[in-house]
Structure of Glucose-6-phosphate isomerase:
Amino acid sequence: MQAIVEKLKSTAAATKATDIRAAFASDPQRFEKFSVSAEDLTMDFSKTAVNAEILALLVELAEAGGVAEKREDMFSGVAINFTENRAVLHTALRNRTNNPVLVDGKDVMPDVNAVLAAMGKFAEGIRSGSLKGATGKAITDVVNIGIGGSDLGPVMATLALAPYHDGPRAHFVSNIDGAHIADTLKLVEPETTLFIVASKTFTTIETMTNAQTARRFVADALGDDAVQHHFCAVSTALDKVAAFGIDQDRVFGFWDWVGGRYSIWSAIGLPLMIAIGPENFGHFLDGAHAMDTHFRTAPTEKNLPMLLGLIGYYHRNALGYPTRAILPYDQRLSRFPAYLQQLDMESNGKGVTIDGTPVEGQSGPVVWGEPGTNGQHAFYQLIHQGTSIIPAEFMIAANSFEPELRHQHDLLIANVLAQSEALMKGRTFEEAKKQLTDKGMDDRQADFIAPHRVFTGNRPSITFVYDKLTPFAFGRLVALYEHRVFVEGVLFRINSFDQWGVELGKELATGLLPVVEGKESAAGHDSSTQGLVKTLAGLKK
Ligand SMILES: O=P(O)(O)OC[C@H]1O[C@](O)(CO)[C@@H](O)[C@@H]1O
């Protein structure tokens, strides 16, 4: 692998691959050569430092890394999450062909389908008003209580598919900060609210604490007996849910082979299903399944997740770019960057390979972003003229849900195209100076000002274009990014499916609570922690 990385570096230098502007100038066919489509979804990577030689090396890299073999291991239920001895089968949750998927010799599809059917029945009951609250009133508000993968997927997806939202209002509470649940409870009435307690493990302190607060909210207003009518749960830990006191017929299970950050396709998607209905939820699964099939069958040079992952790896390890910006030109994808932060950084933010040795080179980049055009008026300055190169990933639909505002959508499209063009082309000193002198500035002053108006250009971006953000298109987009993370993880030679890096802080927080509450001394903690405990205690009212 390292040999191919070295070859990528030397080839990029020898072929001047990073001079993207020159590549466009010399090849009018560049877009045709370096873009791929699957149905209405097109990925344009012509504005990256890729040329025929680099592409050939990336294909070689995928082969050397054994990506195709690992991909089959994942789809066929091999326990590739070896540190937890688990298969990784979120793809089974959207396996719309229903072909058997075996885990330890047992087909998981009957269970998957049974939970999906139970979710559908429950969601329809809430949506139609046949499942009522304790006082006989229909449910008008659903509050999902979860964190990480038990929150980010549902909240991001419910927002993304807002045009399909015809069920009760949806709210999401995640933070242990009491402000989050307090502000949410002000918006809802106990009699007409359903709380979904969503936790894979059913031990997460944030979720359990918020769930207890919500339970008091219902019990104080309507009595203890009412609680069962206003709660349901989603978890893999059915025994723990029973101990919380939620009725068995209001519990929707999933399995340890579904990672938290890959769980939106499971019963964790219940708030989304209640919001948009089971049929649209099914289209969302269909879209992901279409991407799974594409990922599994398309040749590497035409395979969207493969190319996205290979270019991501190339950016990180051959070109040394430390971050990437996710820039959806779609307000409804405003939480997509946050969702991808967990998906990507919790999966690939590791420093140890599957052999237990340090990662050679770099693993996952910092992922960040905001929707356009808001980002343009905030941090794009740095992307265009800063000293770090930040590969940008743009996404835009050809059609919006507001045909009456077509002129606004055309403006949005013009903006996204302008950004990728500006990043690639830039503006030379001569061009900048001419603009100034054309406006009447004298030569000396123009020489002084022009350097500040130079854009180096050659800044890479990938643009995704699709028809419209339907449930199908959205499911396909999320699955595309999941598989990209997979491809990069294989190339980094890490286990993308555990998350031990979140444990230490959790353990220390548990130990620090009695110290913060003043029940135990801070002795034994470092002097900074002791000092902060003391300062906070001094301010405590
Ligand atoms: O669904 P749970 O078990 O409450 O976990 C929530 C989140 O916490 C994490 O374990 C990280 O702390 C995530 O991986 C997970 O999505």
In short: The CA atoms of residues 10 and 411 lie 41 Å apart. The pocket of 6-O-phosphono-beta-D-fructofuranose is lined by residues 147-150, 199-201, 204, 207, 260-261, 346, 499, 502 (CB under 6 Å). The chain has 22 helices and 13 strands. The first helix runs from residue 2 to 14.
